[in-house]
Structures are given as C-alpha cells and as structure tokens.
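chain below, 470 aa
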Amino acid sequence: MSVDMNSQASDSNEEDFGVNSEEDDEDDDGGDEEEEEDQGDIADYYEGVASDVEQQGADSFDPEEYQFTCLTYKESQRVLSEEVNNVAAVLKVLPAVAKLVLVHFHWQVSLILDRYKSNSSLLMSDALVQPSSTSRTLTAPQSLQCGVCLQVVRRDALLALPCQHSFCKACWEQHCTVLVKDGMGVGVSCMAQDCSLQMPEDFVLPLLPGEELKDNHFQLQLCPGADCPIVIQVQEPRARRVQCSRCTEVFCFKCRQMYHAPTDCPTIRKWLTKCADDSETANYISAHTKDCPKCNICIEKNGGCNHMTHGSEYYECSRYKENPDIVNQSQQAQAREALKKYLFYFERWENHNKSLQLEAQTYQRIQEKIQERVMNNLGTWIDWQYLQNAAKLLAKCRYTLQYTYPYAYYMESGPRKKLAQLEAEIENLSWKVERADSYERGGGGVLDLENQMHIAEQRRRTLLKDFHDT
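prediction:
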C-alpha cells in the first residue's frame, strides 16, 4: 500500500522527523541556526509576524491558518491500513476489496457506509469490484486456451476475476506490468473487452513481486521536496499553505506547487505555462520594438538609420487610409493589445519576484544595523525587534502581491481596487522600513512604522480572505 511515494520509503527515510506540525505554531530552531540563516536569507517570514501585528489591534482572524500534520512514511501507511481494515470489517469483505471501494469513492467513508446500508450489492457493482446484476454472467471456462495469446495452457495457469474472464498468468503479468509502469496504481482493470472490473491488490501483487501500487488519499499529500518521504495529512483538503517539518518545503496542499494565494490552482498552472511559452517572445518584443506614437503599430528596426517618418507614402499608417489589409491590421491590433496586457502583468510579476529576493538583503542589512546599535548601547535586541518583524512582514506581503498578478491577468474586467491598495501599502511599508532608525516609541517613528505594518497586513488578509472564501 502506498501514498504515491515513488518508492522513497527506504529504511533510512523512515525516521520520525516530527509530527503534529502547524504552520503558524512552529518554534524557532535556536540561535545557531539563526546565525546560519542570517547570511542573506529570511528563514521563514511567516514566523513570529502574525502575533506581533495582532498585538497592535489587527483582526485576529488569519485566512491562511490551516491545520495539518506531518507524518513519516510508516505513519501514513498505518493511517491508510486502519481506514481500510475498518471499512473491510463493516462491508464484510477482504481488505484488498475494501481498498478498491475506498479508492473508487475517493475515501469518503460516510458515503460508502450510507450506500452499503441502502443497497450493498449495488455499492459493490458501482465500485467495480463485482459484476453488476445486469451484466452477462459467465460460467467457469471449459477451454484451456488463453483469451489473449490463444495458447493452450494448464488449468492452474489460468487466472480469472469474479467476472470469470480467464487468461494465462503470463498475459496477466504483462498487462499489470505495463499499466503500473505507466503510473496506474490501485484500479487495474480486467483485460476482457468491455469489462471494467478492477483487480484487487491481492490479485495484482503476486504477479508483480517487489512492486508497490500507488494510490491517492484526498487527505494525504507527499512533500514535493527532493527525496523527502514526509506525508502531509489534513482534515479538509484545500488550496492552503503547508510546510514540511523535515525539509521545510512550503507548498500548496491541493496542487503541490509553490504556495500561490490569492491565485487558484488552475489559474497558476495556466499562468506558469503561459510564462514558459511566451516570456521569451515577450522579452524580445519589449527589448527590440517600439510602438508608433500616433497609430501604436509595433515597429521593429532591423537595419538602416534611426530616422522614421510618419505620413509618407511608404510608411503611411492604415489608421488614416483605408486599404484591403485593414481587417488583418485590426486583428494585429487586438493581438498587440493582448500582448500589452500580458507584458504589463508579467513585468510586475518578475519585478516583485526580484524584489522579494532583494528583501533578504534588506533583512541582512537590518540585522547588521541592529547589531551595531546594540553594541553601541543604543537600545536592546527587544527594542529593535519591531524592525525585524517589519522586514519579515514586508517580504510576506510582497510574496502575496506577486501572486496577485496572475489572478488579475485572468480576472474578468472589473475593479482591481484591493490589489492596488495592497501594492500602495507595501511600497509605503518598504519606504519606512528602509528609513527606520529609532527604537524610542515616544518619537513617533516606531509607532508610525507599526501602524503601517498593521495597515499592510490588514490589506493582505482582506485580499486572501476573499480568495479562501471562494
């Protein structure tokens, strides 16, 4: 039994790396690790910031709060086995058959039990573990000929499911091997034409020694970190931020990609695909072409001098003179407008990605500034803690802002006021963080920065709340 682990469950990877982890309640790793992480990286700008902002009167509701547990490979297998055995006991079937039923109904135990109480036979046929009452029932095969290779074999070499479609062991092995190598896990079906009856594990595994069938549980996700065997368990699967307790990988639970709120999973996939396909073209057009200032037609200079004339017979713009090519030029204008829209959001996406990387350098400079002030008896580390929190919050807000641009690009025409508000507050926060140079709260500078932190975090939470409520 497997949770799509890609055979990563070696003995060395089955140690207990820590469980019952929650993203907002993880403890600091200690002073030694902090010193290592201060070399230009913000270890986790989600740590310690929320409580600091809430103390200033911010809304205590955090739309990103999400309960999850980090399990080792053995623990995840134990969770699956317990669920399978419990359902098998209720349905009075073998665990391998119960697992097929669970996989078919996406591990919705309550739904399975309700269906079983109403009509147990219909449940089993709908789950494709036994033939339906309307299907043609075959008698035990009289011929010793395999239905696939047509070879005559011994009777003990013919294997059949409850549908009584018999094939030789070699053909079953080939059939299962091909499907499992292609990524099929639990749910390999019968080889007979128009028969979708599924093969339980206790039928498949003896044919494939050493193999392990993959299956997906809606409450479990394997950490996407390199060679990481940790499995994340949640109660309610949603597109939320989770973090592995072993490799510290942060990702979206639903799609296993980088955390991307407020953009939903299908939209971020479309955006990343579009960026991979169109970014080089967009970069070339942006760098090597200019728009005509009167007609906005895209012009590429590929030779000659820099002088361009508008209005001559050769360069005359079709906007001012109708010609048979106007239809095509209208389509070009639409394409150009679409490209402009893409460039607008792509450039901001890239700029904020670069800015986010620069925030690590800002955090490092702040650390050095604080250390210098403390060494010169200008306040204590506690006095300057607000500035560290401000730098972390700035990176946190900028990360959210970066993922508003794919959301805005695919958004239907309408108000984008909340996005603009968050961007403005982030820039204000960045300006104040760069210029903060006091630890005395009476002067107004500290309170002003803390107030700006409160405003920026409130804008960010408002934007995320709309996303998480959908």
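The radius of gyration is 31 Å. The longest helix spans residues 326-375.
thats it, cya
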